Amino acid sequence: MIQPGAFFDPLGILPSLWKVHKAWLKEPEKLLELVMDINSDLTSFDKDGSLTFSPDQSYPHWKAGLLNMTRACSKLGSEFQAAYGRWSKEYIGRIEGLEGRERQILSFLANQIIHAISPLNYFWTNPVAVEKFLDSNGMSLLTGIGNLLEDLARGDHLIQITDPDALEVGRDLANTPGFVVFRNDLMELIQYSPTTKEVHSVPIVFVQAWINKYYIVDLTAENSLIRYLVGAGFTVFMISWKNPGPDMRNVGFDDYMFRGALAGIEAARDICGVQQVHAVGYCVGGAVLAALMAWLNFGYKGGDSIPIKHWTLLATVVDFSEPGEIGVYLTENSIAFLEELMKKDGYLHPAYLANAVRLLRPEILVWRYFAHNYLQGEKPPKSEFLFWHNDHTRIPASACSFLLNQLYLQNNLVQKDKIILANKPLDLRRISQPLYAVGAEQDHLSPWKGTFKICSLVNAPTRYTLVREGHVTGFVNPPSPRNRKKFISGDAGGKDLDQWVFSQEEKRGSWWPEWVEWLCGGCSPVVPAPEGHPKYPPLGKAPGSYVMES
Question: Which of 218, 258, 346, 366 is 20 to 30 A from residue 306's alpha carbon, by CA?
């Protein structure tokens, strides 16, 4: 049940602040030392005279003086911001008696304040904004105000981070040729058109996250993992989820497993005339796939009696004991708060999730665009990554509640037989099909150490790849002479994480070719490319209609 005051403070910030305040009052000598430290920082500003700037000779005298003052104030503000950052970290870090959750929420709060007080977020201390204002005779600021009004009119309380008109789904993005071959009220199944005369006999079925649109793996042609796999001779299917409305409030996690993932896999088997497929799960879609694998393996007799021969997980956490930075939002109170919000509409509004993700990286996903769009009057940039990031989806209330409570809060997916779906208990340790897992070192949404844990949970051969990138850039990683990204890869079954890392040799470039090589070993032999199936006639061209829903 939601606790009193949770609607005002669902994250429990105020109790944590009060606790750290009381703790410091018990240590008056340490508190005085801390106050003296910040006072010393504040009084030492500009002792070297570095805040003095030479006038810009390209401007009239008064404009040069104004720019000079702006640059000086900006530098002074930066020094204050740095001093506050040091002080807040000391204030939170040095005191004893705080629990990990309390320290995390206070660090989160301090991080918001540190980035909010950057001088670049204020017109008169942003030299670029002032210079553009002078050069444009004030038009840049008027344009910025117009950008602000447009964002406010949308009503989602989000800053536009990319030009929404620069790219189009189906034309620039998600444009790998194919057809929708199956549709129900939850998903569309896309089959991509082969580009080779022969294909590997085992098809690949993607189970994407249902908290985003599927096309993160099918961006522009040069960045499309789907196009790369099709070109490598694979028959590829994609599950594209419907963007839910109020009528889907009771759609649950099990629906995504059975009417989504399993239904798509069964259709792919029929179309290709095979007993088994290779399944790929991305992010939350990977959690759905892992749960499905555990369900299918209950009572497994061996051979090809289940429809998945082997599988891949991309950026997928199944052990949520250490959820990473997203954990700052996850408490019984905050989840109960969200459940109350979802009662009205029947879904989690995408703006809540978008704001939560952006506040984990406020310096690059909030304040950078605040200054760029509003103070400098610039148009948001064109970016396929940010376009996808900005293409939000809703989450059905039932599925969202299950995900937050059963997986994140109670961590029941890794507990033996704690979750029972369709009369079968789930235990990841029953899974015996070979697994290829990929994590990203800088991933703040799916921490890589959490994604590695699946390797010791399943009773199967596992291979793990660690990419030195983030949640998106680690996986949109096409082979190219310009690609100098780094990764390590190797067998990981039964190995300690530190032991595994130490034993791997770092490589440069894309991990895609290595994955394809692994896939080829289990997806052979090659057969003539499928020409369609009378039971599954084309229902429309890719990318389908569900991905277009807003």
Answer: 218
- Residue where a domain terminates, one of 76, 101, 135: 135
User: Residue 155: its pLDDT value, please?
Assistant: 85
Residue closest to 276 by CA, chosen among 206, 226, 203, 207: 203
State the Cα torsion 140-146-151-155 to the nearest 10°: 160
**What's the domain range around 58?**
13-135
Kindly report the number of other CB atoms within 10 A of residue 262's CB atom: 20
HSE-up of residue 127 (Cα within 13 Å, Cβ side): 16
Q: Which one-letter DSSP state was computed for residue 93?
A: H
Q: Is 283 a catalytic residue?
A: yes
Which of 170-174, 184-188, 473-477, 492-496 is predicted with the least confidence, judged by mean pLDDT? 492-496
Tell me how far apart the alpha carbons of residues 133 and 143 are, in angstroms, rounded to a whole number: 10
256: exposed, middle or buried (C-beta count within 10 Å: 0-12, 13-18, 19+)?
buried
CA 7 to chain centre: 26
The verdict on 505 and 414 lying in the same domain is yes
Question: Would 82 be classed as within a structural domain?
Answer: yes
Residue among 73, 272, 283, 400 flagged as catalytic: 283
69-120 pLDDT per residue, tens:
898 889 889 988 998 898 888 888 877 777 888 889 999 999 999 999 999 9
Nearest to 221 by CA among 284, 171, 259, 147: 171
Nearest to 172 by CA among 111, 215, 113: 215
Rounded to whole angstroms, the Cα distance separating 348 from 346 reads: 7
Report H helices in 192-272: 225-231, 253-255, 263-272
Query: Do 404 and 457 lie in a common domain?
Result: yes
**3-state SS of 35-53?**
HHHHHHHHHCCCCCCCCCC
Which amino acid does the sequence have at 19?
K
Q: What is the pLDDT of residues 488-542, one digit of tens each?
A: 999 998 888 999 999 999 999 999 999 999 999 999 899 999 888 999 999 999 9
- Which of 288, 294, 318 is CA-nearest to residue 411? 318
Max Cα separation, the chain?
Answer: 85
Is residue 72 domain-shared with residue 199, that is, in the same domain? no
355 phi, psi to nearest 5 deg = -65, -40
Q: b or e along 219-236 (b: 16 or more beta carbons within 10 Å of the residue's beta carbon)?
A: beeebbbbbbbbebbbbb
In a domain, 185, yes or no: yes
Hey, is 474 helix, strand or coil?
coil
What does the alpha-carbon distance between residue 326 and residue 317 come to, in Å, rounded to a whole number? 12
Examine the domain organization and report whether 73 and 218 are in the same domain.
no
Tally the domains of the chain. 2
Mean pLDDT in residue range 284-297: 97
Other C-beta atoms closer than 10 Å to the C-beta of 215 total: 25
What CATH number is associated with residue 508? 3.40.50.1820
pLDDT value of position 64: 77
Do residues 281 and 405 share a domain? yes
Residues 539 and 475 placed together within one structural domain of the fold: yes
- Assess if residue 56 is contained within a domain: yes
Rounded Cα distance between 366 and 121, Å, is 10
Q: Are 129 and 66 part of one and the same domain?
A: yes
